[in-house]
């Protein structure tokens, strides 16, 4: 049974019509005779979308009960039993109700695909996991409902559903997306033209990248080497010289002229040592490239122009930027140079830009090293010509010139040719030159002439010494050349290994990035890291780079084993033996990176479990002691009031009722702190930032303490602060209540505020016993009270919740000593810059109120939710117009049911 195909309609923003497009595709397939059913579609009350459901078979949803409320989810089992050809599944990023088959809907879709069912689904660009931070920076909304990018990238088809911001806002104004009471809030917050334009650009660029991956795969499968100028890609050739920074900046300016352009800086390391690169300068240039949004690549190539052109064509580049040669004028006799060679061989599909710089024509710096093991065909031919042809020409010259130089000088001239042959072509041309020179001197210059006999014994010795010296010099020159090559080779390897180590130190430890680096370094088509559990199990890919990675090590051109059950498989060409040493280092690092990734995941899971166990243990301790104490008081008072044996006076009744009320208040406070702490631990606190004066919030936080226990000093002249009023009130209330609890009787706590530069400080000063310096940080830990003393009510969460709320508003809460004794809590907040226009506040991130608020609020976002995980992922940003968190836990932390919290929300007004 084959795997089903996945088609995704990617929406640039909520309301662009991706669900409508999905349903239209369902009707088209049904009309063509395909067995198409609706697995799950949420129409959000939009009449046109609801009409599109007519005529399509809908699989009945599964009903689940969670915390006393009933919800419906997609029934995966029913779909598998029905086995349609095509299933329409809306909202790929949706989080399922606890108790469902999987936690996320995309996991449900994966199961359908494995069963051979084709799936058509939808997702918005803001729900892609990698874009969470970008979307939050643009819209001020943190998306809690996300889907891994890889899930979407694996789709067989991705179709962008797009609409101009103006058209989308008109559609909303006409009531085609939200109910009329939500339109104004949505248009003024999330659906502002700037937000929509930025989201649209994100979607276009993401789809363009995906299309580029398809293009690269197609070109690789069909062996297309020519450049297709579908997108501007600028390759910058770096030599490690000081001109590199100029080239990178010039390329950046060129890329800025066209949207979507890419910069790829490449440094080609010569294996024969023909380089004068500065590692320090290369590191600086790499940092500059990455700061400008480009990527840095390190490639090995014996012929720099060919390697540079191969890299450029491999990445489908359209332009190459090179610097003017640093060689001096006389050095051009050695060759045209890299720039001229690249320009000559680039062809019509690559534009080559030669950029002038201050280092042009000033010399290359270090001398050029030579090698002998990989001389190249031209060098070898030249060596044989000098070693065999030049001695004959020299002989003709000496025999036709009336100058008797003497046999010794003749020998020196022939010896010079032997040395030249060794330098150019290596050992064998030099030996041939020595042998030929000896015969020529014997025949033409040693008496008797024109005979291969020597009459003078001194000449015999001279010719013999000449041959020995020639062979020795040739051997020494060739050996030196070979040692030079080995040193250069080791230097090239050390550069690569240093680069690999630097990548690890810089945090580039993802397996895909490392495998891509292997592919580029060794000029391979694809690289795959394969592993299996034992010798009988089939190989499985742990990671890959490049098109068409092999599935077995036997199918690869290069196979590098890593242990018994892991191997690095490369396809493209056979590597020479000397390259396998460096490849082995890459392979070992790949195994380490894979193990590290898995260990990080296991450690994170263990940390979460340990944190959960610690909180559960502390919670059980709190329930067993701190919560039972007020319950026992309430129970005793109620039992006394209901007793028929005692006739209580009105005054006694009032005392008992007051005890019940006090116990209930203590329970309310403890439960509120526990709920707030659970939200902080799960990261679901989303502030609703607005500009407000402190004198509007701080007095409201003092309602839980006696009136005479606090002195308030908050000047009206203080600048406004950008905070969530409800969170700030809760933070100040917890700090003040803690200070009052430890302050001596009759000594009020001082709450004072002041401004300093761009911040505002709220100081809560008490005259209690104080806290030592080494314990100042511990008092902010959950379930921690200084000295673990059981004094008063509480479970040690007040200060932890206060710090968590403060930090969620980009503020700080710290403890200081009070001069004269006591403790001072300093709450620092960001002041709003004074200006004509107030800062735009962020909006509540959440489609829905959560499961406790009812499934109907799950996509409306207008109801205070409960504590459970949220139900969202759809298009409706809710009453605030903010599509985002889609979870109940991400609703405002004030929605806990406390009267004070609901009052605060009402006072804050619509946000």
From TrEMBL:
SMART domains: HATPase_c (SM00387), HisKA (SM00388). Residues 888-904 have a biased composition (Basic and acidic residues). It catalyses: ATP + protein L-histidine = ADP + protein N-phospho-L-histidine. PANTHER family: SENSOR PROTEIN KDPD. Signal peptide: none annotated. Residues 622-833 form the Histidine kinase domain. GO terms for molecular function: kinase activity. Its EC number is 2.7.13.3. Residues 877-887 have a biased composition (Low complexity). The chain crosses the membrane at residues 380-399, 411-440, 460-481. Its main location: membrane. This is histidine kinase. Keywords: ATP-binding, Kinase, Membrane, Nucleotide-binding, Phosphoprotein, Transferase, Transmembrane, Transmembrane helix, Two-component regulatory system. Residues 854-876 have a biased composition (Gly residues). InterPro entries: HATPase_C_sf, HATPase_dom, His_kinase_dom, HisK_dim/P_dom, HisK_dim/P_sf, Histidine_kinase_KdpD, KdpD_sf, KdpD_TM. It is an enzyme of class 2 (transferase). It comes from the Bacteria. The keyword Oxidoreductase does not apply. It is found in: Cell membrane; Membrane. Residues 854-911 are annotated as: Disordered. Gene3D superfamilies: 1.10.287.130, Backbone structure of the membrane domain of e. Coli histidine kinase receptor kdpd, Histidine kinase-like ATPase, C-terminal domain, HUPs, P-loop containing nucleotide triphosphate hydrolases. CDD domains: HATPase, HisKA. It is a multi-pass membrane protein. SUPFAM superfamilies: Adenine nucleotide alpha hydrolases-like, ATPase domain of HSP90 chaperone/DNA topoisomerase II/histidine kinase, Homodimeric domain of signal transducing histidine kinase.
